Amino acid sequence: MTASNRTALITGASAGIGAAFARYLASEGYGLLLVARRAERLQQLAAELSEQHGIPCEVFAADLNDPAAPAAIIDYAQRSNIHIDVLINNAGLSGKDAFASTPWPTLAAEIQLMVTAVTELCHRVLPGMQARGWGRIINLSSIAAFAPPGASLLYTGIKSYVLGMSQSLDMELKPQGIHVTALCPGFTHSEFHDTMGTRDQANQLPDILWQDADAVVEEGWRAVMKGKPVCVPGTVNKIIAGSMRPLPVSLQYYLGDRMNPFKQ
After folding, report:
1. Separation between Cα atoms, residue 255 and residue 28, nearest integer Å
2. Is pLDDT at 204 greater than 60 in this prediction?
3. pLDDT in tens, 37-67
4. Cα 39 from Cα 26, distance rounded (Å)
5. CB of 187 within 8 A of CB of 209?
6. H helix intervals, 54-116
7. Neighbours of 108 (CB within 10 A)
8. Which of 10, 54, 83, 239 ranks highest by number of CB atoms within 10 Å?
9. Does 193 have pLDDT greater than 50?
10. Residues noted as catalytic
11. Where is the Ketoreductase domain (predicted)?
12. Does residue 214 surpass a pLDDT of 70?
């Protein structure tokens, strides 16, 4: 099966890394199912990519803070006879306030978006990938997953979960032709910091710490196609991540795989 016969589901596709993934995969001939809250922006992007690359491009407006959203997305794909061969779990945000002073519904929505929805979408697309013997999943973690815990930073714990979960899934699924990669970017030029209200602080960081979304996407896609379970894009980010962990990621993965008592 070639790329022209495959479809990628991308969440958070209306801007930033999600939109960059949409443009990259469209240029490679993949059909697309784009998901985000902003329907108008999704439709504009879908029209642009369909015209430029001649690929089928569907949109589904959904708020992944809603626990019903993952099932609704997959139900739509099934009704539309769309087979999901690639999943890019990109949608995300970061809380701005201290944990104890943040209302529980706000924290619950953050967990739903970046933990539960990510995990559920992986689970829901797997039967089709297993039946076809091929699949690619990229879960957006962060270089923050390698950092020591920080006060009030639920984001760090969430991204650590995504990193560990992705490696565990890759160990289980790779023999079935399904690769799972945790993509762990550092500071990336996007709307993320505008949405979070941290643009002023972000602008004070040196240029060497920043990457363009296109560079992150290209390195992440090469990693998942090569079967690499973890991708830290960019030389500077690799150095930073390596300095924050006592064991290299590749060795952690090897030991986790070999010492797993449940491995079949």
Report:
1. 35
2. no
3. 999 999 999 999 999 999 999 999 999 999 9
4. 19
5. yes
6. 69-79, 104-111
7. 13
8. 10
9. no
10. 155
11. 6-165
12. yes
